[in-house]
């Protein structure tokens, strides 16, 4: 799980990624999410990766933490997901049709590899069902289209 801390200290952060989200509530407007480069601060015991979510009312810089830079980055993305969900504000990628932020939760390994594998299998099974159903619908539509286009010979 992400260890998220926040600060109001202003420091020169090297932002490496940005995503714009549309607010789908009465307030409207744009929410900007920025992720900074993972860093090992002087005197620190672990990596941290800064992020900020602007447009939801609290523009504080927060951090995902871990003992390695990649995990700090992953914890940052997970922290963003939880902060957006906790806000309760419907959001979507700018210009998208559906409410989707692009910040999905990770399957945790906190409870062991077997638990993680079971969750991953459940997700893949559900995804396979959806994809298979979509392919079947497309095949039926194509068959109907071909049947309509075929001239009758009687």
TrEMBL record:
Compositionally skewed regions (Basic residues) per UniProt: 145-154
Start and end residues of each DUF6968 domain: 17-87
Region (Disordered): 135-154
InterPro entries (alphabetical): DUF6968 (IPR054241)
Stretches with biased composition (Basic and acidic residues): 135-144
UniProt name for this protein: DUF6968 domain-containing protein
